[in-house]
Specification:
The chain has helices at residues 3-9, 16-25, 65-70, and strands spanning 28-30, 33-34, 46-50, 54-60, 77-84. With 92 residues, it is an alpha+beta fold. One of its GO terms (molecular function) is RNA binding.
């Protein structure tokens, strides 16, 4: 599944266009590497997402589009780490 679509379906961002912008700016990384919005994600990958006020590290537990659309019973991702981001500092 595409990274931008996963971010939207997993409800990590509200809109797919916002997800595309975040990935293009470098605020989202897959397994520590910068990527493009069309990058393929798989179960077990680790995403680092830099929001304006926090940095979230999650592990992908489900990458099936149909399951995510219906609402994954076990969750689409597991939170590994969440920390506050300094507003003056750019995380990437």
């Amino acid at each position: 599944m595409r990274l931008d679509k996963y971010l939207k379906l997993a409800r990590l961002v509200k809109r797919r266009t916002v997800a595309q912008e975040m990935v293009t700016l470098g605020a989202v990384r897959i397994n520590g590497r910068q990527c493009k919005p069309a990058a393929e994600i798989r179960t077990g990958d680790v995403l680092d997402i830099a929001y304006p006020s926090r940095i979230l590290t999650v592990e992908i537990l489900c990458d099936d589009e149909n399951v995510l659309k219906r609402g994954a019973p076990g969750g689409a991702y597991g939170v590994r780490e969440e920390r506050r981001a300094d507003p003056a500092e750019k995380p990437w």
